[in-house]
Amino acid sequence: RRERWCEVEDVDEAPVNIDVGARRLARGLRIVGASLALVVCARAAVTPARSVTSSGESARALLGAGNAAEALKAATAELELAPDDAELLELASRAAEASGSPDAALWYARLASRSDAPAKDAKKFTDALAARIAALDPLQQKDRAGLDAYATALLSLGQKAATKKFYLNAVELFERCKNTALAAKAEAELAKIHGNKKAVEALLDSGIDVPVRAKKKRSAEATAREDAKHADWEHAHVIKGDNYTIITDMGIDTGEAMSLAMEQMNRYYRKVFHVKERGGDTARVTIRVYKTRAEFDDNEDGEQAPGVKGFFRPGANEVATYDTREEGFAPSFLWSTLFHEASHQFTHLIAPGNLIPAWLNEGTASYFEGARLLPNGSVETNLVPEGRLAPLKASIGANSPRLESVVTYFQPGSYEGSYYPFGWGLVYFLLNYENAQCERIYEPLYREYMLAYKSGATHNVKDRFVEYFVTRVKDPEVTSFADFEKRWKAWILMLADNYFGPPEKADAILAQARKQRDKQKFDAAIESYRWALSKRPDDPGAEFELASVLESQRAADAATYSYRRALGLLRQRAEGSSVELGGKSLDRAAAIDLCVQRVTKLDALLGTELRAAEGTFLEASLAIASEYAGAQRSLVALDRLDRARAALGEEQSLTDLRAEIAKSSGADTRRWRRIDQGDLALTWDVSNPEFKKGPESIVARTGVPATCISKAELPASYAFETRLSVKDPGERGMFGIVFGANANAMQIVVLMANRSVQLAELDGNRLRPIKPLGRAQADGPLEVTLAIEVVGNKVEFFVDGKSVNKRPYRPDELAGDVGLLVYDGEGQFQNVRLRY
């Protein structure tokens, strides 16, 4: 009932030499990549366990012997292993001062003050550190008061927003406090919101990717202890939501994520099928998700054919499936299986016990595969599953199979695999096609057509289809099945063109959104605006128009949030630049004023008090950073600007000053952090037990594709690097790094057995070659240093320290984790580290 990864998409860039090994990888890679739980739950930051050699003795001894420069170098190296160790940071500060670098000395001392003091003699350590900072700081922490005052304002405004049930804005304001002295208080306020069921529903239903957490935040150690108690099916976790009971031995975080996602899906099923909210004629559904196929077979009577990956049992209201990653499916496959199979409950409510056309049954279920699990745990619906649209476009081009064959298939059981994209495409078309008045003329007929099967009366299948979707429409342009097919094909091809097209296609989508808005089809307009923003997320005009529509629908919280997001995008523009906003061409200042007016209208505090606090804080941040730079404290200046950007959001003047100081001084506040330390089970998601921790590396020898994904929490901008050494390339060897690993896809940079380095993407259905990046050295060991640097929405690629390519990505392509990949052979990864 499912297709496996089998397509390799052609690209119009330079030819990519990815051989049959890559094609097999697309069919067989066990992508554990961002474990399902960790993709959708806020993770605790994972600090690599300190190595036995990372105790500071070497740096301490060098400093004691008067070799300050070497002591600083040794302390810096050891900080890669334990970057937040207050004692090591303080040691680095003393070494920097002794080596004649007061800037680095003050910077390290400040970093130490933000880390947990050692348990022994904590007060003595803290007091001594404060005295050191005071002695090193020429401005005597003049900036502290401004940052604290601004954090106080953010916390207060967030609390007031939460009281007004402006939950989206409250969460965003509390998140801004993370790098301030009030971080703990803000975290407590966030916990209140996340513990409020109605608040969480409002966040999830907003369609905006704000941070939402699934129930509990646990450390990696606590999660491991909890899951050890439920590691087999006999002791599986049981998570009970409003409509579903989830039973799984895949882990508590995964189970809670499934519960959160399925409850959201239930609300959407009810909307599509017009079933009463919370109850109606529906019964609780039990969903069993097994860790392996063997468990699935042992506990589900062993009756399922190998090709069946999951099923819905109508009489018992049960869904059963398993983690198909062991068979080479992407993580997204399990989620789409759940969304697909659980929807059959509602199909059976419409036509209980009666045979219905396969396209209607499976096409409707496939429609729900378009739901996408976001990194914050919320679910977006009515989206396009690429694994359906791409093959459908190809089949339309080949004119095979024929639409009539799909429509008239009326037999028990499922139809053949090539029909599935057609079934999805029909349902998606019927629910989304709009006429010139932006009316979804087929949507009510789709429901009536489904209800017609309640009777089970004998009929001609094609004639009934024509009756509902041709005759009843009364459209002079569509008077026959052939006319319908022509319209359907043209619409699907237009959809594919917009969906797979470049960011410029956002213009066509925005044109449709405006038309929908003008015709007062507001739900459809909101959907279109969000689609356009997914293609071009830095468009303040589109964000402003979305906010205006949300405001017209009295969605004050979401409208305020979107106006503020448009404001944030405008603040990233250069002074004097112009932008289209609300149908007018405005300069940056006028556009910002207009956004502020709209925010103030909806919430005076967010429009006046927050704006005033932001303005004061921005001015103070620019001034104090300039003072520190003028006092030869460039590292401190850059650190202050980074903290300002985290608390304020991106602002062009902050960005410009930071670039100016960094360029003139050569200072760099980014620090390397080794992530190949400690227990792999705690700090990595390992898809194959052959991944082992060596003394100074991670090693894997495997004949099957496997990944090892870091659990480290990533900032918005970072670099990721490793030295890769291939000991045995195998017959089809591929070795490398992955990034943006999430429930939907992952990006990969791999060294091939033929010494070429390739960039590609692995998504739910296919391996998509993107670009060759170069080659390893021509002779000698098969070795290479691979690195990426993520800044904003752009990724720069490095091979052996040399920049070889730079390209933009959508936010959803970068939202995910980093890790290592081995396919067929033995690879060794040394000095695996992050820099930020």
Summarize the structure.
This protein is of the alpha+beta class. Helices cover 48% and strands 17% of the residues. Helix 6 (102-113) runs antiparallel to helix 7 and helix 27 (588-602) crosses helix 28.
Q: Can you offer a commentary on this structure?
A:
- The structure is a single chain.
- The protein is α+β, with helices and mostly antiparallel strands.
- The protein contains 32 helices and 25 strands.
- Helix 5 packs antiparallel against helix 6 and helix 6 (102-113) packs parallel to helix 29.
- The longest helix is centred in the C-terminal third of the chain and has 27 residues, at 604-630.
- The protein is globular.
Please describe the structure with a list of short key phrases separated by commas or semicolons.
single chain, 836 residues, alpha+beta, eight-stranded mixed beta sheet, eight-stranded antiparallel beta sheet, 17% strand, globular, disordered N terminus
Roughly how much helix do the residues carry, as a percent range?
40-55%
Mean pLDDT: 88
Radius of gyration: 28 Å
Count of helices? 32
Can you summarize the main beta sheet? 8 strands, mixed
Query: How far apart lie the N and C ends?
Result: 45 Å
Physical arrangement of strands within the biggest beta sheet: 1-20-19-18-17-24-15-12
Structural class: alpha+beta
Per the principal axes of the C-alpha atoms, what is the gross shape? globular
Number of strands: 25
Low-confidence stretches: 1-54
Give the strand content.
15-25%
